[in-house]
Each structure stands twice: as C-alpha cells, then as structure tokens.
Amino acid sequence: DTDSEDEGDPIVPKDNPEFAAMEADIKDRHKKQAEKSKTAEKCRLRGNQCMKEGDFVGAIEHYDEGIEYKRDKKELWTNKALAELKVFRWADAIASCNKVIEYTEIFEEGFSKSADSCFKAFTRRAVALRALHKWAEALEDLEDALKLFPKDKEARDLFDKTKAALEEDRLARRARGEPEDT
Hints:
By secondary structure, the chain is mainly alpha-helical. It contains seven helices and no strands. It has helices at residues 17-53, 56-69, 74-86, 90-107, 115-131, 135-148, 153-176. The protein starts with 16 loop residues before the first helix and ends in a 6-residue tail after the last helix.
C-alpha cells in the first residue's frame, strides 16, 4: 500500500434502503431547486419586458415574484431597485440594493466576484440617497462603485455632482447656523 495509489470509486452501499432514500431526496431537492431557478428567471424576463414598456409597477411585481423563488438572484434585486427608482420609491430602492450588497459581503467575501451587480447596487442606492439629500452616504456608495469600475463615466459624473451638492449643502447649513453633520 502506498499513498500514490488511486483509491477508486467511493464505497457506497448498494442495497441499503436508507442510502437509496437519501439519494432520492438529494435528487428531488436538486430538481426542485432547478425548477425554482427557471421560474425566477422567467419572472426576471417578464419584469424586464415591463420595464421596456414603461410599466415599472408591473416590473416590480414580477421581480418580487422571482425573488420568492430565488432570493439570492442579484439581478432580480438590482432590476427591482431600478424600477423602484423610476416610481420614486427611494426607501424601497435602497432596501433592494442593500440585499445585493449584504449577500455579496456575506457569501462572496468582497464585491469583485459580482462586480457588475454590486456596481449597479451601489450606483442605484446612491441615486436614491441623493433623492433623499443624503449626500455623504451617496458619495460613499459612488466611491465604492468607482472602485469596481473606475472608468465609468456616468458614475464619475454622478460622483462629481454629488460632491458638489454635499459642499453646497454644507455651505447652506453653515449660512443658516445649522450643524453640518446630517
């Protein structure tokens, strides 16, 4: 016996009913998971069609339905956030973007593996934060987005506009004698 020998196939019990039941259960779970993924993708495509037609509320409903089948599908969350921005649901858009960022932080240990989805989440959350006049938070998100895609012109322009808005807000607060830390 040496360590270099191939060990061959694993030894599995051929006639063990418990093993057969476990194997059938695993196959059944995989099949159900694949079906859920297909359904979630169909929902995403229906939502995308609604977006093209300008039916943003309908799109949100389709994306929500897809999320019920596959909560970790980042495209559903980022697309939903875009639709929410279109109907001025700022807090909802922020919450949708938060899901993408949270999933990525927890399960992917950083944003580079899902750079495209994270970039969309950061920029869309920044747009919602800007609408709520939360300039400093929006600026942080845009900085994170630009770390992923430093040459993106739209993100760079939004970053510059947000930086200017933050400074203007600070000057206005100073002129009114208000604290600047909000």
